[in-house]
Amino acid sequence: MNSKPFVTSKTSADFFTLPSSSMDGKAIVEDFRHYFSRTLGRSNVNQAAYHVFTAFSMAWRDRLVERWKKTRAAQTESDCKRTYYLSLEFLMGRALGNAMLNLDVDSDTAQILKSVGLELEEIIDQEHDAGLGNGGLGRLAACFLDSCATLQLPVRGYGIRYEYGMFRQKIENGHQHEEPDHWLRIGNPWEIERQELAVRIKFGGHTEFHTSADGLPKAKWVHSHDVMAIAYDMPIPGYRNGTVNTLRLWKSTATNEFDLGEFNAGSYADAVASQNAAEQITMVLYPNDSSENGKELRLRQQYFLASASLQDVLRCWVDSHGNDFSQFAEKNAFQLNDTHPTCAVPELMRLLMDEHDLSWDQAWAITSKSVAYTNHTLLPEALEKWSVGMFSRLLPRLYEIVCEINARFLEVVEKRWPGDLERMQRMSIIEENGGKYLRMAYLAVVASTSVNGVAALHSQLLTQHLFRDFFELWPEKFNNKTNGVTPRRWIASSNPALSKLISDTIGATWVTDLPQLRKLAPYSEDTNFRAQWRAVKQANKARLAEMVKRDCGVEFDINAIFDVQVKRIHEYKRQLLNVLHVIHLYDRIKRGDKAGITPRCVLIGGKAAPGYAMAKRIIKLVNSVATVINEDQETEGLLRLAFFPDYRVTAMEVICAGTDLSEQISTAGKEASGTGNMKFMMNGALTIGTLDGANIEIREEAGADNFFLFGLDAEEVEALHGHYDPAAIIAADADLSRVIHMLHSNHFNMFEPGIFEPIVHAITNPYDPWMTAADFRSYVDAQDRVAAAYLDQENWVRMSILNTASSGEFSSDRTIADYNRDIWHLPTIKPKV
Ligand code: 26Q
Asked: Is the pTM for the entire model greater than 0.70?
């Protein structure tokens, strides 16, 4: 598979150094013409709009590739330290608009295109989202890559090139249906295949031990079933700085000698079919974001990513340093995006020992210095565990290494707490009660130089609960890195009108220095500025209303509050609490209690994991309630509810610009951070939220007056366990009683009686872990404060400006600068001009 270079060729690299492509709009459109007509062989733009997108993207890709090569050359030449961000998910969304923004599109380009009958907006709209992620964790990885390139840090992303990304959500009769997302079917102009980087990945087989020539014990992984990993590189441009970093995604294919046995036996078709088995590995993204399901294919994906990426890094190291690994840990850092790539720990040990002849101690010194782990959840059901039976069958050599890591670790525990067997059992990487399981989070903690949570509260709770014992042992490992989002995609590109107003007011440096937004604060007192701010929001609301009309068939009035909750559907995120409030408003309208109701349009969107029945039922509930409310004459001008189908990155770009009220209403202590909350804040939405995740920091930055707080805090939630009595809460609250009664009496599901009984049960269950009823009253009161505040538009706009002005902390540039300062210690590398 590794193609040989042309050894006899005298062609110099200079031969391939072309003059830089012009950034002039005319030149770009000229190149577009070339690709459309010559490369794609088209002549009619009306036949296939997709080809117009492809050709235009190719013109932009040329401009990225030049900078890409220069960045690579500068990074190689400096021989500096690098970080590899290992993640099973990169939720990139679209690339064209981002490339144009970051390379600084010539403002003429749209005009020139128009003169030949092409709309730039329509071209951009042809692109399919790269949906290689579930939600927060995957999108965070994408924002991080953007910030690393913008900060000119030598960071490479490693992930999987799923053939099918996150499923497409269709709503039929109010229910979610999943359709496959074959995003590559029409080709992907942003990737470059790198066959020459292919590596071999082993599965199955067993270990043979022997003694090496110098008398050392050596292990060999034999009789394995191998697959190949093929690299596909995607360019990651920094913001107008000449840097283009790399996201390297791996696709699985069969080895060349695949099943010669079957082939020789005359079973050609079976041999070809077994190619399918190899390609299965990277076929589809697992669409559950909060429950571990123990599937063998998922473990294959995780090991496949870890092994391919590490082999790639080690090959590159050996190319430039030979077999001298003495500097390896000083020059390489691996950041694990949750436990998903944790196979990298035993795999790095294996490669260093079995393939590069290092001793255990040398290999461990390197591994434990270069690996760092980010945790994204406290929910016990989301913690990864692999059954020892499956793990050792699939990855026998890795299992032996994990056992050795654990044995040595337990010696450390025994030294620190002699005789404390209970603690040893608690802390063991291998859980043994009944079945045997590998606890991947513990493996990650034991092997990592740094362990971080993603918001202040979350990091603190990690040290008090999940990792308490480990924190006692190694307090210095634990730290916080509050999440952030990239202001390039989430303001500059998605909200051009607001960007222009901000830049006209305080200059344009905020795009790469978000704390500059503080300078907007004084303008919150300026009537004229407030009018402009409001006009921008109203225009963005009109754009959102149009999308809601198109995709939900519901009319939103831009003078109403746009009240939005978009995120994965999960009980802990409490979309249900939101619906209970909507039903309560409806009940008020029906009872004639309309005074003080501010017109409100509620939008809820998000995907449910296909196997998560309760989440799917909540989607059905939103749709059923929406149908009844929207069809009732009495709600006209007061209340609308819509479920937004197929919520994804590209939808959020329109949604966050047009939102007034951001719903961040998870049960306190359950949402690690949240990042949608930050996108809304940047775009001037006010938050209604609990003291959970990054909401706490958002409120601190914005000021308590500019945030609608409600609900129990994390300590109160914990203290209430065992005493929670939802029946009493409901009985004591006439509003909540009526809401529950409406649900119970099939008010929203006359023709499907009983379908919401499980929901009523969940709310009234004293063991409801999400304590929805407990926060109902406080939530409704906070919503009443929202409604009253919105009536005073001057003050609302003031608060909106102050939210944007206070959002500087939530740029992923700040987050990445923190990672680099505390964990990676990378230099900035500027490509040669
Ligand atoms: C694990 C095993 C098998 C199959 C799937 C998974 C899996 C996949 C994705 C488990 C979890 C996820 C994603 C988790 C996630 O998105 N967490 C969110 O991370 C954000 C970024 O840090 C936080 O802001 C959110 O609070 C957190 O919920």
From this structure: yes
